[in-house]
Amino acid sequence: MTKEEEFKKYAKKVYHLMILVFSIFIIAGGATIYYINDPNFSAFKNNTETIVTTPEEGDEDLIENGIHVRTGLVDAEGLMTVVNNCTNCHSAKLVMQNRMSAERWNETIKWMQETQNLWDLGDNQEIIVNYLVTNYPFEDKGRRENLTNIEWYELEN
């Protein structure tokens, strides 16, 4: 056997050993990643038990002192329509801070339908807008009142 043939044989063994080590590395890495995501290896267990979870005790629609506890919204006609339609996408705080007229609420709802995938509210839209306008009316804050009864002084240069 020539030195060239011996070298090729040796290189082939080294190549196969490198493939084996690389394969073990890939398998070990995959197993490690799987273990991180599922430390109990539950996919490999033949578990026929049904896990039943029960929600914590508490009333989702509890009203205390005229306030819907979960959302902080005022308890009034149309409350649950607002809760069921508005708080699916955003916080009730966002609803409470945006005090608008009926016209502006309708424009905002139309904008949400056109750009944010809000569903058609149907008859609920009038209930929602009436609730919001009644309980969170538009406030024209504007500028502060002019100062009165102030003794002004001259600044010296």
Describe the 3D structure.
The protein is mainly α and 157 residues long. Among the domains are: 9-42; 63-135, Cytochrome Bc1 Complex, Chain D, domain 2, CATH 1.10.760. The protein has helices spanning 3-37, 79-86, 92-97, 102-115, 124-135; strands at 63-64, 67-68. The chain has a two-stranded antiparallel ribbon. Helix 4 (102-115) packs across helix 5 (124-135). The radius of gyration is 34 Å and the shape is elongated.
Proportion of beta-strand residues? under 5%
- Roughly how many Å is the radius of gyration? 34 Å
Order of strands side by side in the largest beta sheet?
A: 1-2
CATH class of the domain at 63-135: Mainly Alpha
The portion of residues assigned to helices is 40-55%
- What separation lies between the terminal Cα atoms? 106 Å
Tell me about the largest β-sheet. 2 strands, antiparallel
User: What would the CATH topology of the domain at 63-135 be?
Assistant: Cytochrome Bc1 Complex, Chain D, domain 2
The number of distinct β-strands equals 2
Named at the architecture level, the CATH assignment of the domain at 63-135 is Orthogonal Bundle
Q: Please write the string of helix (H) and strand (E) elements.
A: HEEHHHH
- Which outline best applies? elongated
Structural class: mainly alpha
Count the DSSP helices: 5
Which stretches are low in confidence, meaning pLDDT under 50 for 5 or more residues running? Answer: none
- Give average pLDDT, whole number: 87
Assembly state of the chains shown: single chain
